[in-house]
Task: inverse folding
């Protein structure tokens, strides 16, 4: 099927600066519609959900409101909408929601295996827990930035054979990930079972979890990644509603270990998604990570994240971890593509990259590819350029 | 000197429910004063800083505003204040600020050594990085709760000799810590040098970083603590301004490794604090952790946390990590007090504890003890009772 990837089957939400003020918009093809203005005329009962600069009030309102709004917007006639559409081109886009807590998972078996081999060459690549639970950790919400934001190269402690030295990271990397935006807050001690994931996962976006591998390697034992990640995390400008992915659901890979009941998804609707990512470095394609290859699903990540009684807030975000497929051209980080920097990647422009250089621009794009039964569904892009360390 | 620990030398801030609405208050002895009401009458120019339910607008406003308000409140005469004072007894207290990002450090050498011996019995107790940088990680902001909130025992995956099983934690613990509340936001790529820590650290509070040791042990490699911590973190109801601690400053312990310049505090005002903690279990004193023994200072933690370019938001919180002294009676967690549960602690009521039982109540208190030159300075308490797992 051919249709615009941001057509009526998508209806992604974003925040655009309109007449000087950030406003919540819905994307239609290459236009945006100011939701509060359109609702005021066409569906006044929904205005309070969308009269905001960000998605958070809608996220708070819960799944019935999400569906009511989506149904309403899908039903609007082109004639009715004509006066509310504004061309996207040239508009400034902002982060479409205020991030409450940010959790990053590690859900790709291929990525975890590749990283395990590089970081722990003498041990098993996967830790003993890996196939029993989706490994994750909390990241820094305050440094989540929107696509297009420049990323200043971080500095930090770098290991040497003697004492550590201080300097700009020499192993700066990207990580191509999918993010899940949450709403419908819960109380503490109320875990979210797999069956209720749809009531809390509002939509999906793209994430570049920038990583300074040298800072990370030195700091990470025993409490995990910290400054190697916390300088910046980039998000796509569009959040695509979960309902738009109904035709993209696929079974996740077979599980090698039997799962505890709270993670056992064998009898559920499939929570894998046929989303294909592409990574470009300075305009040159370098990888095509397949999201369908992820071992752990979003529903499992959410069930695990809350099974200890942790509550959820509207605006919580979790990311999948680096998406890497089984094959050479499907790796979601330079760490893997260059084998820890030992085999620099040869780019089509004749240059080589072990890790990112100042001035490099990384663009990660994703979509559900078109099939006979479905049109292409766009997630847009997450873009960022590396600026030199300033001091 | 004898004076009320929450006298005019303290002026701690909190949030109390007054006439049905949460309001920002300042504590005076055993009373509270609604700041917006008092300022409206006595210092109208300061009302906008305090006309709120939480500290965040004041935290945003920055250190000149913090000092202007503190100076004003100190100068108010008892006669002027009489009509604004309300007895604290019986008031409901709330979390005094909205937590933006929460970072937990690991700054006690004694604690890190004790834990390292228990978790990695065959290795060096301290990891090679420990004396070069303050180890830390991001925790979950959304589950930070105010003192007095009940804590439901978390459940999760527990390691067995075969596959993991699921169940309520059997090794539930407390961690006695000091928290630092931040304001005066910064941009990305603008690290905060040691010399500027005073411009961003607003005040101090007490933290109980509840920990499920069994959940933590299974999940923690390779990305650090996650569900073993994220179910709840309790905070004292009072934030004591940093300026109140001027007479409590002490030199931190001698450093065993020379520090990189951004952490080298040898020529600075001392950033250790002579704060003494006490831990009670069901009313029985079990430990007296000395905060002055901490290896890393708050200024160093803040400098480290931002040296990679991570920005700061008003409402960011970081905690010191468990405060444990060198001696048996100074350990800040049951894990240490019971040597990983192998030597249960004998309580004065004749019972024993390896870890916390349902119904147990932990109360951590702290103050700067009185000396000839200074009155006692109170930080109050952080209190929490364990409820049984519900399912």
Result:
């Amino acid at each position: 099927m051919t249709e615009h990837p941001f057509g009526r089957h998508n209806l992604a939400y974003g925040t655009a600066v309109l007449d000087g003020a950030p406003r919540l918009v819905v994307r239609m093809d290459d236009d945006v519609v100011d939701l509060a203005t359109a609702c005021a005329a066409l569906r006044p009962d929904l205005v309070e959900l969308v009269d905001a600069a960000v998605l958070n009030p809608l996220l708070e309102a819960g799944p019935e409101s999400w569906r009511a709004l989506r149904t309403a917007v899908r039903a609007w006639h082109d004639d009715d909408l004509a006066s509310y559409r504004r061309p996207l081109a040239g508009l400034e886009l902002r982060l479409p929601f205020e991030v409450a807590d940010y959790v990053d998972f590690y859900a790709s078996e291929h990525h975890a295996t590749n990283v395990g081999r590089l970081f722990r060459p003498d041990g098993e690549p996967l830790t003993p827990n890996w196939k029993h639970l989706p490994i994750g950790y909390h990241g820094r919400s305050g440094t989540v930035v929107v696509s297009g934001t420049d990323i200043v190269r971080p500095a930090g402690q770098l290991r040497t054979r003697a004492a550590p030295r201080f300097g700009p990271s020499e192993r700066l990397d990207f990580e191509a990930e999918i993010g899940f935006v949450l709403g419908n807050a819960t109380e503490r001690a109320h875990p979210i079972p797999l069956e209720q994931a749809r009531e809390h996962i509002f939509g999906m976006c793209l994430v570049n979890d920038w990583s300074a591998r040298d800072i990370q390697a030195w700091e990470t034992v025993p409490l995990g990644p910290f400054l190697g990640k916390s300088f910046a995390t980039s998000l796509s400008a569009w959040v695509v509603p979960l309902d738009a992915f109904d035709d993209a659901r696929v079974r996740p890979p077979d599980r090698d270990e039997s799962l505890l009941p709270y993670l056992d998804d064998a009898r559920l609707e499939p929570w894998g998604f046929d989303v294909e990512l592409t990574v470009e470095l300075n305009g040159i394609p370098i990888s095509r990570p397949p999201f369908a290859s992820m071992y752990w699903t979003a529903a499992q990540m959410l069930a695990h994240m809350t099974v200890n009684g942790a509550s959820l807030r509207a605006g919580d975000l979790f990311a999948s971890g680096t998406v890497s497929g089984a094959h050479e051209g499907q790796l979601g980080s330079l760490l893997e593509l260059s084998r820890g920097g030992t085999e620099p990647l040869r780019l089509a422009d004749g240059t080589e990259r072990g890790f990112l250089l100042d001035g490099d621009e990384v663009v990660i794009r994703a979509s559900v590819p078109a099939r006979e039964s479905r049109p292409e569904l766009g997630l847009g892009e997450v873009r960022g350029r590396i600026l030199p360390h300033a001091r």
In short: The longest strand of chain B covers residues 377-387. Chain B has a mean pLDDT of 97. The radius of gyration of chain B is 21 Å.
